[in-house]
Specification:
This protein is of the alpha+beta class. It contains 18 helices and 17 strands. The chain has a 5-stranded antiparallel β-sheet with strand order 10-9-8-11-12. Strands 15-14-13-16-17 form a 5-stranded antiparallel β-sheet. The chain starts with 6 loop residues before the first helix and ends in a 7-residue tail after the last strand. It binds zinc ion. The site of zinc ion has 7 residues, from loops. The site of zinc ion (ZN) has 7 residues, from loops.
């Protein structure tokens, strides 16, 4: 399971205290305790020793305050490689410090090289306004951010590593978790639920809160460091994923931050592709604020089109007492509105449960690990009821009509149906023998299996003009996958192209999953492309 790429860093980290030469200052030693919930719901206490140091450098060139000579060893214990150095004169005098969410969710934007893509000619704008070199360069990646991404998504983590190795981009790691001035400890380490009264529980700082505070503290350290160096020509800009992310950072003391959408606005005309790469939450904010509506107000107005997903703890408890079942959802090869989940029936026999229609599939996508609830037996299906048996073309049309209907009059979400009991669940097997298929509905997602999807833009219907907001649907080649809503400023150019898109989220008030453009694969129908 452990990725080979992570090995050098962890090996270096464990050896680090022994490698210290005797001339170095005595490191401050501290215990780092964490309570970690395992996937099976057990709580395990992890204790780690941590050595805090004063000699980790800020990566600014020729910094007179940091001890640079010993910094090579410090860099290797985080990165396993020698350290890049920030530019003396970053673009617009700004060093970027992205948040955990920004790096996790906006990797497509961060790794986009504006140097390798010619900027669009800007009409009337003076030529020196054009970006020379990279939009995303001179970026400080905090150890907190690095570790967070490593835990969340190994794919993104490896792309971050590649950026850190790329000398052209000047992404540097700051070992803030090992730096005495920027290390923050959790205010209390009692796990939630262990505290004896409510007042006590409120004092417990979550892992997420501690991490946010660590990031904000490191930002403040950089800001103070630049002040101490009397560098008034440069500043450290906190780069948030969205307004909520920024508000959280400001709560912990970040005073100079922007959302990534705001940050990209000045270069929007030069690099329309960069805008398209924004992950959906940020892109949506861009659209809503452009219309003069704040993102939270815009959200509140929309009605919920899907039942809410249950929280993970509730799902796991439900699966444990057999009220719910878990399994991987598999969609019909010809139509994503009909799916199956294999569940463990009595005696370890695997039984297929049928899920039909938007509401019952409830935003699950082929391959996701889901928790389902069986529907009352009156709603179980004979195989002849299935969409596949009725012919997919007719179903597609019916669905299309239904889609239009829904668009005008969104159906309110009903109250959850009575749960099928354990006894009834045990009957599943015998009923299956009588050719009645148990039916169910998705109540929560345990793990997403979102990949990148290949598809094409849906042409406007009946000669309608292109959407002015830049919002459009991508029809995936894989018919097991629903259409994906993206934002693009390149609609005309992309109309006849094969695209690669990524899904970012699927909120309950959005009919389609929200995603973003990743890249163009070629012209539709081209032998090379297909
Ligand atoms: Zn320094």
């Amino acid at each position: 399971m452990a990725p080979a790429a992570a090995a050098p860093a962890s090996v270096a980290a464990s050896q680090e205290p022994h490698d210290l030469p005797h001339t170095e200052p005595q490191p401050l030693w501290c215990l780092d305790e964490r309570n970690v919930a395992t996937r099976r719901g057990k709580i395990v206490r992890k204790v780690r020793e941590r050595y805090l140091r004063d000699d980790l450098s800020c990566s600014l060139p020729l910094c007179s305050l940091c001890v640079v000579e010993s910094d090579t060893s410090a860099a290797t214990h985080v990165l396993g490689t020698t350290k890049a150095v920030l530019s003396e004169t970053p673009r617009s005098g700004v060093y970027l410090l992205p948040s955990m969410e920004t790096v996790l969710k906006q990797m497509d934007v961060l790794e986009f090289s504006t140097k390798q893509h010619k900027p669009k000619a800007t009409d009337g704008a003076p030529e020196d306004a054009a970006v020379q070199g990279e939009v995303f360069a001179d970026v400080v990646v905090l150890e907190t951010v690095w570790e967070f991404v490593k835990r969340q998504d190994l794919g993104v983590y490896n792309r971050l590593r590649a950026l850190l190795m790329n000398a052209d981009r000047r992404f540097v790691v700051f070992a803030n978790e090992h730096h005495r001035a920027s290390f923050v400890q959790k205010t209390r380490t009692l796990p939630v639920g262990y505290a004896d009264d409510e007042a006590d529980q409120q004092e417990v700082e979550s892992e997420q809160e501690r991490n946010r505070r660590a990031v904000a503290t490191a930002w403040a350290w950089y800001a103070a460091h630049l002040k101490e160096l009397e560098r008034r020509d440069v500043r450290v800009l906190f780069l948030a994923n969205d307004a909520e992310d920024l508000a959280n950072a400001e709560r912990h003391g970040v005073k100079d931050g922007v959302t990534i959408a705001e940050f990209l606005r000045p270069v929007a005309t030069q690099f329309p592709e960069l805008q398209d790469l924004l992950a959906a939450s940020a892109a949506e904010e861009k659209e809503l604020t452009a219309e003069g509506v704040s993102s939270s107000a815009g959200r509140g107005k929309k009605s919920q089109l899907y039942p809410a997903h249950l929280p993970t703890a509730e799902l796991l408890a439900g699966i444990k007492n057999k009220r719910l079942f878990q399994g991987t959802i598999r969609c019909n090869r010809d139509h994503w509105l009909e799916c199956h989940v294999l569940i463990h029936g009595a005696g370890g026999v695997k039984l297929p449960v049928l899920l039909q229609g938007r509401e019952h599939i409830n935003r699950a996508i082929d391959g996701d690990l889901v928790a389902i609830q069986l529907l009352p037996k009156s709603q179980w299906k004979k195989p002849s009821d299935s969409f596949a048996a009725n012919g997919t073309a007719a179903t597609e049309e019916a669905d299309q009509d239904k889609e239009e209907e829904e668009a005008q009059q969104p159906e309110p979400v009903g109250v959850a149906e009575p749960t099928v009991s354990l006894e009834q669940a045990a009957l599943v097997q015998s009923d299956a023998a009588q050719h009645v298929k148990p039916a169910g509905r998705v109540v929560g997602i345990i793990q997403r299996n979102w990949r990148k999807f290949c598809g094409s833009l849906e042409p406007p219907r009946d000669g309608a003009s292109l959407s002015a907001s830049g919002s459009c649907l991508v029809v995936p080649v894989d018919r097991k996958v629903p259409k994906i809503k993206i934002q693009t400023r390149q609609q005309e150019t992309l109309m006849d192209k094969r695209l690669l898109v990524a899904i970012d989220s699927w909120p309950a008030d959005s009919k389609f999953p929200l995603g973003h453009y990743v890249r163009t694969l070629g012209v539709i129908g081209d032998k090379e492309t297909e």
